[in-house]
Design a protein that fits this description.
Blueprint lengths: L5 H10 L12 E4 L2 H11 L3 E2 L3 H7 L8 E4 H4 L11 E4 L6 H8 L13 E4 L4 H21 L4 H4 L11
Parallel strand pairs: 1-3, 1-4, 2-3, 4-5
């Protein structure tokens, strides 16, 4: 049951945002729930890549000329999307630091032509805010105990009350 379509409308607006020069800034909306992905695709008229071999082979053909919607479970590992995308919107925030690291890692990796990679999280509920705090703490622990660089540790953060993300 849909209680409110605010997040759908906000994510659809994010997908067509332009920079200060009026240039499109395409990105990937990462979704956990298939129903949300399909509803967002219908509203935005942009592609949703769920699970399966066809979606897996099609998503890597994207050139960054438009925003896309991707299943986090199906595409957060093993895809090289850094040549096409530098913006990410994670709709459902997980406390699983490894999942977030992998998801952000699809666009933040060698070969990224942009100077920075942006990752937006919806933090409109206490649960999502707590999930991001837990994920950052877990990433910090991994970084301190293994010495491996964790994106959630060295990324800069800006919290805004102006937008849901």
């Amino acid at each position: 049951v849909w209680v409110d379509d605010y997040l759908l409308k906000d994510a659809a607006a994010w997908m067509v945002e332009k920079d200060e020069n009026g240039k499109m800034t395409p990105g990937i909306v990462w979704v956990e729930h298939t129903a949300f992905g399909h509803a967002l695709a219908k509203l935005s008229k942009l592609p949703y890549y769920g699970g399966g071999k066809l979606a897996s082979s099609e998503i890597i053909k994207e050139d960054g000329s438009r925003s896309i919607i991707a299943s986090e479970a199906a595409h957060s590992v093993g895809k090289n999307l850094q040549g096409a995308f530098w913006r990410n919107l994670i709709v459902t925030v997980s406390p699983d630091a490894q999942l977030i690291e992998q998801t952000v890692g699809r666009t933040h990796r060698p070969g990224q032509p942009e100077d920075t990679v942006e990752c937006y999280f919806y933090l409109h509920t206490p649960e999502f805010r707590e999930a991001l705090v837990k994920a950052r703490m877990r990433a910090k622990y991994v970084s301190e105990t293994t010495g491996s660089v964790q994106k959630l540790v060295y990324g800069s953060y800006a919290m805004s009350d102006q937008k849901c993300r």
